[in-house]
Write a structure and sequence with these properties.
Elements lengths: L2 E4 L6 E3 L2 E15 L26 E16 L3 E6 L5 E7 L16 E2 L5 E2 L4 E4 L13 E7 L4 E8 L5 E9 L6 E9 L5 E3 L2 E8 L4 E3 L4 E3 L5 E4 L20 E6 L5 E6 L4 E6 L7 E6 L4 H10 L5 E8 L8 E3 L4 E12 L6 E3 L2 E8 L2 E8 L3 E10 L2 E10 L5 E6 L8 E5 L5 E6 L14 E2 L9 H10 L3 H11 L4 H13 L3 H14 L4 H13 L3 H11 L6 H14 L3 H7 L5 H8 L3 H14 L4 H9 L5 H8 L2 H13 L3 H8 L22 H13 L19 H13 L4 H13 L3 H14 L6 H13 L2 H14 L4 H13 L4 H9 L9 H13 L3 H6 L15 H14 L26 H7 L9 H9 L5 H8 L5 H9 L3 H13 L6 H10 L2
Helix pairs in contact: 2-3, 3-4, 4-5, 4-6, 5-6, 6-7, 7-8, 8-9, 9-10, 10-11, 11-12, 14-15, 14-16, 15-16, 16-17, 17-18, 18-19, 19-20, 20-21, 20-22, 21-22, 22-23, 23-24, 24-26, 28-29, 28-30, 30-31, 30-32, 31-32
Length: 997
Amino acid sequence: MKRVVILLAFATAVFGQVKVWSGKLTIPVSEEGLPDPNPPFDQYATTRFNYPYTLRSNMTGRRVPRDLRALYLENEYLKCSVLPDIGGHVYSCTDKISGREMFYANPSLKKQLIGHRGAWAAFGVEFNFPVSHNWMSMSPVDFALSQNADGSGSVTVGNIDRPYGMQWRVELVLRPGSTVLEEKVTLYNRGDYRRRYYWWNNAAAEVGDDSKIYYPMRFSASHGFTFLDTWPVNHEGLDLSVVKNHTSGPVSQFVYGSREPFMGVWHPRWNTGVVHYADYADLPGKKIWSFGVDADGLDWRRALSDNNSGYVEIQAGLFRNQETYAFLPPQGVIRFSEYWMPVREIGGISRANLHGVVYMSRSGGKLRVALNVNHAIANARLGLAEGNMRVLLDQANLDPGHTFVREMPIPADGRKWTFSLSDSHGEVLLAHTEDAYDWTPESEIRKGPQPELRANADPLELGENQELNGELLKAMGTYREHAADNFELNKAAGRLAVTLKDYESALSYLKRAQERRTNDPEIQYYLGHAYMQLGDDAHARAQWEGAQEQPQFRAAAHLQLAQLEAREGKLDRALSLARGHEIEVTLLRSLKQPAQARERAEALQREDPTNSFLRYEQVKLGRADDALWRHLASDPERVIEIAVVYMNLGLYADALELLSRSYPAGDPNEAEPGTPLPQDYALTAYYRGYCRHKLGLSGAAPITSTRYVFPYRPTDMAVLKHAIVSDPADATAHFLLGNIYFSGGMTEPAIAEWQKARALNPKISTLHRNLGKALLVVRRDDAGAVEVFREGLTADPANVELYTDLTQAMSILERPAEERVKVLESYPDRASMPSPLALDLALSYAEAGKFPQAEAMFRNRHFEKEEGGANAGEVYLETRFQQMLAGDATALDKPVDGLEFAAGLKAFLNEPRFNYYRGLIDKSGNGIYAVLAAKDAGLTGWKPRAEKLASGDSVDAGMALLALGRVEEGRRVLHEVLRAPDRNLSHYRARRALEKR
């Protein structure tokens, strides 16, 4: 299908009945402070792995109107807007017939700490690949507008992530005369290594208390599929299909035992709804999410909106749940489509497909059939059937602007009727039989708790699962520990070592595996990478030539061989291997074939209209594209990513030209907070110096600030090593090389580089945090870490993590609360102290018995709300309870007026910990506080319950061990808690347990 790609269009474009254009949308948006300058290394993480991205957790609580770029699609029935600078989310899609929004067009984007990197807002449709609430969910992404030859219009959004180098791309399509919004999804591993992924489409729909969830299922599954429940009425007797019944906390349920391709939500209050549809073979996963309507759920409504509006999330995914990932091989591609459609005036949802949505209901002895069609159907036949009985309800010209409704008296004999919609030729377009769905037989369903999965005894299976969960460093440790002479484990270890840039180790493991199987294409492919990164192109070529002989690695090996041929100046041979890849355009241009290069660039751009590299190539071929410079200016890593493509081909002059440009300062809405221009980015300068060296040119560019510079590519490592060879006294290069080593789990080389940087220039930002935390968490040199952190307070006094990390080390050393208070009080700007530090200081004050000072920390301060994290209200109550336990019986009765979180305090009052303090907890329960209460009361039977809790490295396990008198074991566990990231007050609880042992 021919189409014209419009990369930026500021005037309305009309073709047929669909309009596509770019404009502005003014929305109040939460202002963020600058991101955390400290690299979020995987070695410090437990669930969310973010390096080389910044963490965006600095929320100000202020919302200001922002003129955001918006991409619009509009036909006769729908008008949709997309925000390319906020993750490419669909913001709104108005059903012009009813005037209602299909999705949650939140009137203000009120950010809280929910996303993978922190900041996140509830609205519209979010595209999640390769992880949930993905790294760019609140960030500018690539985009393009298209007018298509068939009269349809498209908005395409997408992104290439930094951790994995994988691309997601969604083309949102509206067609003339249709009420269906189509998503054409492409998932592409454009990187060199296999990577984990999943896809979940997450649409928020505003709800009222009477909104009803129509998922065609009889059973639902919890996260991890640990519990199978009945639907819609669950085992507690709650009808979870109705939002007002979400009274027991969040509802997060996956469809189980149903192969139906649709799901939706109906709103009686507004007489409208929304339906999602996708072929079950393409997209089998379905999930419903709701914060609920209990106290905490209502608190989340306040936190995420300015009008207390509620919403549910309609989610669709490639896999059965969000604990399931798979690997996408290098150059692997997945394509599928999914669809959204509005519903109006029919009363509910019985069945839906691309032709329409029907609802069948009974009342007063009558069967009511109500239908919305999604496109015009001439001479449609609508009928009902039961056995041999046929009833023609109507023969009519149907269109989306009119709702078809018919009622028919039926006998109350339990017979089920079938509705059918057929076209003028008699082809059935939509059919539904009452209560009949494609369900797994109930006899095959095991309800209730599911059997626990046994621990992975097989190290290969364990390592694979760790990789799938993003725990690459743990997986490497598993493989390394058990590899010995095992073929599969050596292969796995070598493959992963290449991914982590530990090429010497990779060579050792892969050569050992290859001795057992000489023609394994995966071993050959990854061995080629290890040899290349170690400078041995001859051996790399031999390995890739072997890998290309088998289909699963042919495309990936051809790309590597093409780059190798190009670096050796054999452009014709490179071109023969690169057909269909973006570098084909570059090779044609370099071979002085501009006409062919333009033709291929245009063809490839039609397939991937968001591709910045192809846009730049077309500029080099003579096309004007002023908007490209603005797009590249908003993220220096986009510039480096294109330059790396040229460098991999040996075209250093092309790379240097791009790296040497002066990019224009643009609208701050189009870049992440704190993002420098490409010409001011330290890595850009190092890359320029490297390319000049390769071209035989002299001169090194001055290095600017290292703030937010987190190197991660193999080429980043090569560039930084060259800088150090050129100038061994370059402290910044040593520091950044240490970062890339540490990101790959190479701790000792990282520490060595950081120590060199420390000796050369101890003023480098985040240096002491990185070095001190490596000593604390990995080397377990607590005293050495304290020394480095204290030095850092002088060199880098505004770095929040230096204070939290120092108090963490002091907690492990079991220093008194007064010492921690002194450290935290030394932060230079107490009034603007970030939330985590303020909460830490408030707790430390309470532990030190300084309750007025603890109280003062909550006044005149904004606290963001973090999903799964410590809530300011919870911490506030903790300080009050500690004051009560210290002898102030009125502590809980003191007013809390003026605190922004005061309305949500009751959500925490019944937590087991607080009930334990108050003596209100059920002593027969199995939680740690019930067990402690039973012990305190001298009841029998608490010990077996404590034994069940006394395993693992959790706070509860440590407390259980102490209660059982196994003091040294308990202390060890609690010290491990203190060494891990602080989650849900884990550090505070561990300290308190150690104090009371």
